[in-house]
Amino acid sequence: MTNIHPLIICGGNGTRLWPMSRTQSPKQFQRIGDENSHTFFQSAVERHCGEGFEPPVIVSSVRHRNTVTSQLREIDSPAQFIYEPMGRNTGPAVLAAALHLYAQNPKALMLVIPADHVIEGDINTTILAMRDAAEAGYVVTFGIKPRYAETGFGYITDGGPIAGFDGLHSVHRFVEKPPLRKAKLLVESEIAYWASGISMFAAATIIEEYQKFDPDSFIAVQQALAHATSNARGTLLNPDHFRHAADLPTEQVVFEKTKKIALAPLHVDWSDVGSWSAMYGISKPNHDGNVLQGDVIAVETKNSMVRSDTRLVSVVGMSDVIIIDTPDALLVTKVGHCQNVKKVANHLKAAHRQEAEKHNGSTAEWGNYKTLVDKNGLNMSSVMFKAGAVLDIDPATLREITVVAGTLMISNGKTQTILTEGERALLDSKVISRLSNRTDEPVEMLIMTQSGDLGLIDSLAVVPAGAAPEPQRPDAPARTLAHETVHNVRPA
């Protein structure tokens, strides 16, 4: 029996979970619960491993490359990586992975998995049972029995059993995000399922269907893969070709048109966690119905969710509220109004506020940072750099480091500079600079950039100690690690 390659697509910005989720650190990379819990992405990876499964294929924006590899390292999971130079929806991502896997094995099977859903229950028994159908050429989409009339989900209606494949059904039709009245009718019909976003098929099948229904996008993705840049860290699709692929989901391009579509019901608890109300719903409340995460005190408060990243938050005499406190933004809303949080995130984006793009600071294994100034092309951040940390920084115009405490080594492949307390240096504007803390004490420093970049810490990359910086091609339009958050440390 052919093993299945889980394909985890890490797209999406998760604006309805602002302020936890930001453009540069979206929902899938955030922890589901407290600081000891896995992220949504890590949970998706661990859900489909073991017998019957190959290591996953990860398709992600190149800006999240370090985050992806770091979070996989935390759970000790190998993977293959494909990076998109720009977002083109799920269709081109799925097709790129299919072409990649087909080149390795023309009989490869793929399981497409969203990176930001929460699922509880035995999902893999049903998935593994559908391998025969996928090998026979069916495009299997998995449905969830609806618990209520939800207008924000797509629906699939059951067209009856398919002979020869136990548990497999034909698809009568797809219904995309119906109005409330229609959603209620679908739920009452007993033959409708929520579209889970999970699907399985042979790589050869989806390639063939794409050639049939969207040949232009097929050529664009095929060429983007043929002219991709590959190294030990993964495959970066060629932007000049990839941008010509249609910005459409697989469902719209293939699923709704193909005669090979089939439905397999899943009997699990499923949530796409598309709002803070949904996040509250998947969490385990205390005896007052409260979900309290972080340093929180709740007095005479019921049926509420309060989450604090750093400081003490006290709530008195409240009910049915959601309070999310981050270092640079506070959200207060009522349960039932959480879908409108997206409007706040969109307003911040329109106003070019950094709170829409990234967090004011971050704590990771390598240390932590806090943005002090990010305005009019000037970015200054305070950094605590742990003992043993080794980091690469992308070239930028007028990027300066001042050491406040400790000893820092800076190298650019040709020269080395050692800075101690009160000393400063201007980094090379044309090549990657490596920062190393070779001491047993942390280094405190200020990093200032006057190039107009969105953030300087976001462009740090983690590499094993002793490795040479990844060379920068002279014709490269922009270094692929730009605007990426570092989450790991390597001992020096």
Side-by-side strand order of the widest sheet: 20-21-22-29-24-27
Name the poorly predicted regions. 453-492
Query: Average pLDDT across residues?
Result: 87
Coarse structural class: alpha+beta
What's the number of extended β-strand segments?
A: 30
Distance between the termini: 45 Å
Backbone CA Rg: 24 Å
Helical content (DSSP H or I, runs of 4+):
10-25%
Number of helices: 13
For the largest beta-sheet, the strand count, sense and barrel status come to: 6 strands, antiparallel
Note the beta-strand portion. Answer: 25-35%
What form results from the Cα inertia axes? globular
Describe the structure.
The protein is of the alpha+beta class. 22% of the residues lie in helices and 32% in strands. The protein is built from 13 helices and 30 strands. The strands form six sheets. A six-stranded antiparallel beta sheet has the order 20-21-22-29-24-27, with no helix packed on it. The chain has a five-stranded mixed barrel with strand order 6-9-7-8-12. A hairpin with a 7-residue loop joins β7 (155-161) and β8. The radius of gyration is 24 Å and the shape is globular. The two termini are 45 Å apart.
Structure characteristics:
492 residues, 5-stranded mixed barrel, 22% helix, 13 helices, disordered C terminus, 6-stranded antiparallel beta sheet, globular
Structure summary:
This protein is 22% helix and 32% strand. By secondary structure, the chain is of the alpha+beta class.
